Amino acid sequence: MTVDQATLERLASGKYLLVTTFRRDGREVPTPVWVVRDGDALGIWTVTDSGKVKRTRNRADVLVGECDLRGNPLSEQVPGRAVLLDAAQTQRYRGLVRRKYGLTGWLTVLGSRLRRGTEGSVGIRITLVQP
Length: 131
Hints:
Blueprint: H1 5-13, E1 16-22, E2 28-34, E3 36-38, E4 41-47, H2 51-58, E5 61-66, E6 78-84, H3 87-116, E7 121-128
Antiparallel strand pairs: 1-2, 1-5, 3-4, 4-7, 5-6, 6-7
């Protein structure tokens, strides 16, 4: 069962999302990231070899909540399920990031492509779930 639309909209409309992934031993690793809306889910875009990608491969459950630039929580976290996206879906997330974050988003996506190529980043779709 998914969470209510108001929670989804609130989280998607913020500038930063605190995504907490879990290490194999269960320790939490919170990370502030940019967030976009992907229909009935949230989307983030990150470097392919980042820790959050590795942890998501091992364990799909995550916690998400509003935060500031430094990762200080601004709301309670809610549970979700994370899925790594393929190249075409990741490309769509790059477009969503550029659209939401304007010039800063455009420059960040361009810089990433120049440094790492299109295979150097991946989208992660997060579907919120009721606890």
